[in-house]
Task: structure prediction
Amino acid sequence: FLVRLKEGDDIVLPGAFIPAAERFNLMTRIDRKVIELAFEYLNRTGLGHESTGTFFINLSGSSFNEPELFLYISQLAERYKLIPERICFEITETSAIANLSATQSFINSAKSRGFKFALDDFGAGMSSFSYLKALPVDYLKIDGGFVRNLLDDPIDLSIVDACNRIGHSAGLKTVAEFVENDEVKAHLVELGLDYAQGYGIAKPRPLE
Result:
């Protein structure tokens, strides 16, 4: 699930409004609304009641400092009778390190109910490998900045390969971001990545 802002007939991308939302401490409210809309959609379509498929939802760092968020998510999932194992919350290294203990506590509580977690933009931060060991996630999403140019840049290719191997060594499923064409996708298959996302797989589209 991706969030967009609709202004008249125009669609505003997150990079244009998320910084302002962070500045005015609105991210927790946005997270709650996205979770509510996503859960309602999964219930209405029946997708959240099926035993296959995983649905990813981004969480901002500020939400980990909200003590009632886990209770809110649990109650909402129970109301809609969703299967928690089908829902994966994405966190970034940057958001996690802002309050590592709170993030770890939130993840452990949510995982005890069956929810999954993904470490997003892996490889972009200086301390990615340290936090991979500290955070009990299920998926490793390799930063698209390395993926998009791996056919032309041997260093990017080596980084993607290394991240994939490390993820598998940790027992995680790996996801390549920013996969924009069949050539990159084919190369990722050769490297053994588990999943891919990007315009080369499918473009974002409205739920309705």
